[in-house]
Amino acid sequence: MPDLAGRCGCGSVTWSAQAEPLWGAMCHCEDCRRVASSDYVSWLGLPRAAVVWSGPRKCYRSSEKVVRSFCEGCGSPLSFESEVFPDETHVYAVTLNDPGIYVPTAHIFWSERLPWVTVNDTLPKHAKGLQDAAAKGVSLLD
After folding, report:
1. Could you read off the pLDDT of 91-104 as tens digits, one per residue?
2. What domains can you pick out in the chain, each with its CATH number?
3. Cross-strand bridge partners of residue 106
4. Which of 14, 92, 108, 141 could form a disulfide with 23 if both were Cys (CB 3.0 to 4.6 A apart)?
């Protein structure tokens, strides 16, 4: 079982998890892009019970079923938790101490990608995201 760990930009907030990642995907939805001020966001899904946080992490409800967190000091976005996935915490893959271990398996919300974003990978490109798939009783990342 890997010992995963990460931190915010200034290092005030750290996280660790002794668990296998559940999945990895790159999200192109507008919400994720705006919150991260990025072209898209690379997410790593982890078992919520395995994630341990330390430092001044601030949480806020970004929509009816979603809570996001960030570092209170430097503002780095850190996590996404949804009532749709009550047993998962989604962390930004770039917060990993060793982001080279991240292995994405798909693009989600491909329908919302920015028109100037191009990718050269052969990963599946799903029009919608994980919450939409879960509501329909399907999994995009098996």
Report:
1. 999 999 999 999 99
2. 3-135 (3.90.1590.10)
3. 25
4. 141
